[in-house]
Design brief:
Blueprint lengths: L1 H40 L3 E6 L14 H6 L3 H7 L7 H6 L2 H13 L5 H13 L9 H15 L2 H12 L1 E6 L15 E6 L1 H5 L13 H8 L7 H17 L4 E4 L14 H9 L7 H21 L4 E3 L20 H6 L5 E3 L7 H10 L3 E4 L3 H4 L1 H14 L5 E2 L7 H24 L5 H19 L3
Parallel strand pairs: 1-2, 2-3, 3-4, 4-5, 5-6, 6-7, 7-8
Helix pairs in contact: 1-18, 1-19, 6-18, 8-18, 12-13, 15-17, 17-18, 18-19
């Protein structure tokens, strides 16, 4: 009987001990993550890249769930799942029941994606929405709240901006790149320089209607007859943005061309500019564009403006992905050691190239902007790799969204990724909590202050 009791006790210990140890370890892990996450949530975040639109700029007569979906990255996954692009006229006029019947099946097919999860996170944060997935029923409830909020969008934006934890957003207005009047309570100005590059090879011929860029130049007192005149107007645009406290310039040309910019001599560019644009071969037009980006880098360096560059994955459905490889920028990093380059999106799917540049070049900074939304797990893997090889004063974060709900979700998702990586490193004995806190502050705030001279 005693032997039986002893065996019973031993068997019980064998069964219980692993559970106790597991719970103890789990408790430590949760404690590390929770402390790191609490520290992250206390940071007033400097968001280094956004495309925030005012509600008036969205082609909608009313705002419900589907209007926000159409403006979100998740729209791309819904299309990839097999439906046509969301029809804004239909979204404005149809009932929510009809819209669920039209789009609900494809929306459900995206429940596994990071686009979906980070979109949910925005509603979790701002709407006290507790569900993991969108359903026909909870979309109806959300739509009622959205409509109420958007009836006074300015008040809603102020409330949501503060609740999300932002201090300032860098505003890249690619849809109106010459606008310098922004609300400085929320935004810092980004000088979007794509038109300065692309319009260099689109000069109108005498006697024909000028394109908007050249008409703008004329309206502002610059008549463009040659490359010298063109550069004078571009410098004027630089100075206008500097006067309005622009914090950086932004190049997103990978959406329309390769990121390889050849170093073209001034005399060759001058000769090409003198030719009628309609007679430029594609290779000649590219040379003019290449010359212009080199000129912009030198001008940005002169004005102490960092240069943000889109690399990697291209939003939407269909494009030439090879245009955006980080490796294509290598010649620029070598040629301009005094310039400061802020490269975007983890270079996904070329995250190794992205990290290598941050390690090799003191003047290349790595921005995690949008990477967690593209793939949460790739962002975790990539940040772990970056922390292995790149000093952490060179890592930044941004949201890259069009409406405040998605930006709030983007920040929550970004914190999830960074905190998970740091907590695991603390548990493995690779970091102390104090260093993890410092890394958080650098990524979400202090590196931006330093790089952009805020």
């Amino acid at each position: 009987m005693k032997n039986f009791k002893f065996q019973f006790v031993v068997a019980g210990l064998i069964f219980i001990l692993p559970i106790v140890l597991f719970n103890d370890c789990s408790g430590r892990k949760a404690s590390s993550y929770e402390k790191i996450r609490a520290h992250a949530d206390a940071i007033k975040v400097i968001n280094t890249h956004e495309h925030q639109h005012h509600a008036d700029e969205i082609p909608a007569t009313r705002f419900r769930f589907y209007q926000l979906l159409a403006a979100a990255y998740l729209d791309g996954d819904v299309i990839s799942a097999g439906v046509k692009a969301l029809d804004m006229k239909l979204i404005d006029t149809a009932s929510l029941d009809y819209l669920w019947d039209e789009y609900g099946k494809a929306l459900n097919f995206t429940r596994n994606t990071s686009y979906y999860s980070h979109f949910v996170k925005g509603f979790n944060k701002l709407y006290d929405f507790d569900d993991l997935f969108f359903t026909k029923e909870n979309i109806a409830r959300l739509s009622s709240e959205i409509e109420k909020n958007y009836s006074d969008y300015d008040s809603w934006f102020e409330k949501a901006f503060r609740k999300a934890g932002f201090e300032v957003m860098f505003l890249d207005q690619y849809w109106k790149p010459f606008n310098t009047e922004i609300d400085k309570r929320y935004y810092a100005l980004v000088f979007h320089i794509n038109p300065l590059i692309s319009e260099s090879c689109k000069k109108h011929e005498k006697g024909t209607e000028p394109r908007s860029f050249y008409k703008r130049a004329s309206d502002e007192g610059f008549n463009i007859d040659n490359l010298y005149d063109y550069l004078a107007f571009c410098d004027h645009l630089f100075r206008k943005n500097i006067e309005k406290n622009a914090v950086c310039v932004k190049n997103s040309q990978a959406y329309s061309r390769t990121l390889y910019y050849e170093d073209v001599p001034y005399e060759e560019a001058k000769s090409l500019f003198d030719k009628p644009s309609s007679r430029l071969a594609a290779a000649e037009a590219k040379k003019l564009e290449d010359f212009m980006f080199h000129w912009i880098i030198k001008k940005a360096t002169e004005y102490h403006l960092p240069i943000q560059i889109h690399t990697g994955y291209l939003a939407g459905n269909g494009n030439t992905l090879d245009n955006s490889r980080p490796l294509l920028l290598n010649n620029l990093f070598l040629k301009y050691p005094e310039a400061k380059f802020d490269i975007f999106h983890g270079g996904f799917p070329w995250t190794g190239e992205f990290a290598a540049f941050g390690k090799m070049f003191p003047n290349v900074y790595l921005n995690l902007v949008w990477l967690p939304q593209i793939s949460r797990e790739e962002a975790i893997r990539s940040l772990d790799m970056i922390l292995d090889c790149v000093p952490y004063n060179k890592i930044l974060w941004g949201g890259d969204c069009h409406l405040i709900e998605e930006s709030a979700g983007s920040l929550e998702f970004g914190k999830d990724v960074v905190c998970e990586v740091l907590a695991k490193r603390v548990e493995r004995g690779l970091l102390t909590e104090e260093v993890a806190f410092d890394i958080l502050e650098k990524i979400f705030r202090e590196n931006a202050i330093e790089l952009f001279n805020l």
